[in-house]
Amino acid sequence: MANMTPKPRPKNLDLRTIRLPLPGIVSILHRISGALLFLLGIPFLLAGLQRSLHSPEGYAAVGALFSHPVVKLVLLGFIWAFLHHFCAGIRFLLLDIHKGVKIGPARTSSLWVMVVSLLLTLAAGVALW
Prior knowledge:
By secondary structure, the chain is mostly helical. Helix content is 76%, strand content 0%.
């Protein structure tokens, strides 16, 4: 314990060259999807709900808005954000109880999060159109 100086760590601050492993990507996407849902998704959907409940004309206007292809793409993005956030949240809950913490199972579970969230989004997209 005489020499307690830490080893110098390599520093790479160039974001274009940093290569994150898949669990890191899933973690960042979990945060981004949560922020996207909270800051944009909830207000957008609540405004649509309020307008649709206000009057029959408002209901028709929201129905016409949600049938537009660009709005459907935005909704598909929100659906992916919700499904990814949900699947990654289950993964993080399992990690919190020390299930799948080792590197192999962690990589496998992050791959499953990506595959399941994308397949569920694809199924929702087919139902949306």
